[in-house]
Specification:
Helix content is 33%, strand content 24%. By secondary structure, the chain is an alpha+beta fold.
Length: 325
Amino acid sequence: MKYVLNLSLLFFVIVSCGKKTKNIILEGPVFGTYYRVTYNAEISYQKQLDSLFYVINKSMSTYQVNSDISKLNRKESHVVDAHFIKVFDTSKEIFKATNGAFDPTIGAVVNAWDFGPEEKITNLNNFKIDSLMQLVGFDKVRRTEATIRKPKGTFIDFNAVAKGYAVDVISNFFDSKRIENYLVDIGGELRARGINKEKNIAWKVGVENPNFDGTQSINRALSLKDEAMATSGTYRKFKMDEHGNRYAHIIDTKTGYPSKTSLLSITVIAEDCMTADAFATAFKSMGIEKVKAFLEYHPELKVFLIFENDNKVLETLALNGFPEN
C-alpha cells in the first residue's frame, strides 16, 4: 500500500510540474502609441499598469497641459516628482557621454519644425533657428533635489526616452511581483526577462525594415533575454516639402536642422530600455563613423544600423555583438 501511495505522489508531482500556465496579454493605447505586455502569471495587473501609465504621463507628457514638465516649461512650477528626477539624471549622463548629441532641450526647435506638441513656426529660416538654438543646452538646466531651474524659453522634452523609461517602470513592477518571464512592448521599445513560458522558447522580437510607404517587414529576427531594445529612425515620422525633400523628426542638436545622415534605422540593445532609447536617438544624428568610434569605448551597447549606401541601396551593420537571431 505504501508503494502505491508513493507512485501516486510521484504521478501528481510529474503532472503538476508539466502543467503550463498561459501567458496574460494586456494591451491598449498609451503615450500616443500602443502597449502590449505579455507575462506568465495567473493575475491580471491591468489596474496597476493603468496607474503607472497615468503617473508617468502626469510627470513627463508635453501633450498634457497640467503635467509637471508642461508646468515647468511654462515656468508655473519648478517642482518635479521621482519619475522626472530619474529620467533627468539619466539624460544628463547620456548628454555628457554623447557630447550633447542627446539633448532634451532641443524641444523648442523640434516644435519649430512641427514635430512636437507646440505650434510650429511659419516661414522658418536661419535667423529663427539660430535664435532658438540659443535656448538649447541641457548643461544650462540644473536640479537641486526636486527643484529644476532652467533659462527662460528653454523647452524640455523627454519624449525621446519616456517610452523607454515606461518600459523599465513596468518591468521593475513585474520584478517586484517576482514574475520571472515577461516581454514589455511600448511602441516598439522592448524589455524581456526569462522566456516565453507558454511556448517554452525565448522571446522573439524583430527589427523592421525602414519602409517609408507605411508597410511593415522584418529585416532581422532575434531572441531577447534579460535585456532591453529600442529603435530610432526616420521611416515613420517625417515630413516632405514642396520639392520632395524628406525631413527627419530627429533634430541635430548642433545645427538645429533635421539630421542629414545616411542612417535610416538604429537599434540599440542595453541593460535597460531608457538607456537604449536615448542612445538610439543620439546615434541618429551622430552618423555611422562617429557611432563606430563611440562604441569602441562602450561594449555594453549592442547596435544594429540600417543605412543607404552611395547607390541608395540599403545596407546593414551589426556592432558590438548585436545578435543575428
